[in-house]
Amino acid sequence: xxxxxxxxxxxxxxxxxxxxxxxxxxxxxxxxxxxxxxxxxxxxxxxxxxxxxxxxxxxxxxxxxxxxxxxxxxxxxxxxxxxxxxxxxxxxxxxxxxxxxxxxxxxxxxxxxxxxxxxxxxxxxxxxxxxxxxxxxxxxxxxxxxxx
Length: 148
What we know:
60% of the residues lie in helices and 4% in strands. By secondary structure, the chain is mostly helical.
């Protein structure tokens, strides 16, 4: 069986918070880690946890953390600043108009913009910071493919 290799940085951050070499963090532990390591507020860290807890079991595995880190990683503070800049009404969530404004720099057509927003929007019709992180990652991948 092939063993998946974790980036060293991902493993080092995660390992600071685990106990007994079990590479899983309960929700409160993962939220605390994200607050400390990435300077998120509790609300932002909770939103990130809920976005990246892919199996919805209330536990963040090392692999879920790796996905989070790949999407957000070292650019967490820049992402938070961009989110705050776009969140004109200060609600802590982006409505469709705020999200569309933020996507203008990607030079997308109307249908592409609508697609990306609809693929990221929550049940409440808004985009929280976790969904925003996922949206930025999708746009990054899309932009890289367009360049080829």
